[in-house]
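> forwarded from #structure-qc
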């Protein structure tokens, strides 16, 4: 059921061939003859998820292309990435794909839609999907303790389950790949016993389920567990049982010794000079960040996942359900997927970083929109491009409505709120006829009125400040950081 009808999704290569005449025309209009690209008008969905049946306006492809061109050029010109590739799909249909800059600087190879990049932590959703398939098959349970599969793992008296590993609430000490100490370690093909010796014996950060802390080591352990449950090493199971049957031929385990056509080189910057990224063994985190892929395969994967072709609808709902901590607080992370909003649009996304690469993949279920940006530099900011393109496609505009002196007087004041154990002070005041704000010790930012007591701070279009209405002045305000991070603040008398 999950893989038998995947042929209804047209291959990315076939879409490129069909899109080429329109792409070439647009390329001449934009005056960019050296870029590798394709663009195509959106048509009926090839594989549409039940959530994506909402009627949407036609996409303005030329405007999207202009935004993509401008954003890509800005990052390349700023010297933060040699190259990148961008692609957009709606309802499973490719509408835009293009490469910019260099996939390999030394060989003078241009980046294109066919370029293969390391995708880092985007890998985690593939790992989570494998776990859910094994759960569906009755081979494991989300409530199983990890010691059922890793009997010698030192849980130090804690009850750690598969669920805790999937949503980063295990409390197990996390490792940061790019810490200098770990850079040295991770040049080696460390074995499972060596990884356990290095990391598992460190004290827990918190009791399982109490807090959320992003954890690559948790996903490393999931990879080991998958191997033990299936009897096949994670890397092999991933390719044979997931990627191959789904037709994702341009996604693979990113072993350095492997010959991968169109593979991009990864880069870092050292004292503003471009250098080749330092070596990192993929053996230390295959299930956490070991995949390579093209933009086209990531679009296809997202359509298949949200269209019920990878896991069951119930499993997908579990993967996209936010985490509720023991305290009752909600965290915008499911299983291998980050959950948020862009404007009023539900957003399922993930970003990823690897040695020499940064990636971003975002999906908007109600409109069927998917945007992916892959880059070959650790300094790049693909998430900013992804958001800019999504805002353009979804018609999300930040307004800046004028305020009367009476309005400004109503909102101006000093507000206090709790941030962890600390009390923060937010000052809201008028300057040059505009409303400004500042958290004590932080930078000044403008508050742009959206109407109905709602403001969006300059510098972070994802956040909102909503004032509590009152007759003469606001009694308080609510700070919304994404979908679930809500902080109440009271006016200081």
């Amino acid at each position: 059921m999950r893989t038998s009808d995947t042929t209804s999704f047209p291959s990315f290569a076939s879409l490129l061939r069909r899109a080429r005449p329109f792409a070439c025309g647009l390329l001449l209009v934009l005056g960019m003859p050296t870029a590798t690209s394709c663009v195509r008008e959106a048509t009926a969905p090839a594989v549409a998820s039940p959530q994506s049946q909402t009627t949407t306006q036609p996409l303005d492809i030329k405007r999207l292309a202009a935004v993509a061109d401008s954003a890509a050029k800005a990052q390349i010109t700023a010297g933060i990435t040699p190259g990148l590739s961008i692609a957009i799909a709606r309802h499973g249909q490719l509408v835009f794909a293009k490469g910019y800059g260099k996939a390999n600087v030394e060989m003078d190879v241009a980046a294109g839609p066919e370029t293969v990049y390391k995708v880092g932590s985007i890998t985690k959703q593939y790992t989570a999907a494998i776990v859910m398939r094994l759960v569906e098959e009755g081979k494991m349970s989300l409530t199983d303790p990890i010691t059922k599969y890793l009997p010698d793992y030192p849980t130090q008296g804690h009850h750690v389950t598969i669920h805790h590993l999937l949503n980063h609430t295990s409390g197990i000490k996390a490792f940061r790949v790019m810490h200098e100490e770990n850079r040295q370690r991770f040049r080696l093909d460390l074995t499972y016993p060596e990884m356990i010796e290095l990391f598992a014996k460190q004290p827990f950060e918190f009791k399982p389920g109490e807090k959320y802390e992003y954890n690559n080591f948790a996903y490393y352990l999931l990879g080991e567990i998958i191997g033990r449950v299936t009897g096949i090493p994670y890397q092999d199971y991933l390719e044979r049982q997931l990627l191959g049957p789904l037709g994702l031929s341009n996604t693979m385990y990113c072993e350095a010794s492997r010959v991968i056509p169109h593979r991009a080189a990864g880069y870092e910057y050292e004292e503003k000079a471009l250098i080749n990224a330092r070596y990192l063994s993929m053996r230390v985190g295959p299930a956490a960040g070991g995949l390579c892929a093209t933009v086209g395969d990531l679009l296809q994967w997202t359509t298949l996942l949200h269209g019920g072709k990878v896991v069951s609808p119930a499993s997908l709902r579990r993967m996209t359900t936010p985490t509720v901590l023991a305290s009752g607080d909600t965290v915008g992370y499911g299983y291998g997927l980050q959950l948020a909003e862009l404007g009023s649009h539900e957003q399922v996304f993930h970003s990823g970083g690897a040695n020499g690469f940064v990636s971003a993949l975002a999906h908007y279920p109600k409109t069927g929109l998917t945007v992916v940006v892959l880059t070959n530099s650790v300094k790049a900011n693909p998430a900013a491009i992804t958001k800019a393109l999504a805002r353009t496609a979804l018609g999300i505009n930040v307004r800046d409505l004028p305020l009367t002196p009476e309005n400004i007087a109503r909102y101006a004041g000093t507000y206090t709120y709790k941030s962890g154990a600390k009390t923060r002070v937010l000052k809201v005041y008028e300057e040059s006829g505009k409303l400004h704000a500042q958290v004590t010790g932080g930078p000044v930012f403008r508050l742009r009125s959206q109407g109905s007591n709602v403001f969006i701070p300059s510098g972070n279009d994802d956040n909102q400040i909503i004032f509590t209405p009152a007759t003469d002045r606001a009694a308080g305000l609510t700070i919304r950081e994404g979908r679930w991070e809500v902080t109440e603040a009271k006016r200081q008398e």
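QC bot note: The longest helix spans residues 12-30. The longest strand covers residues 93-104.
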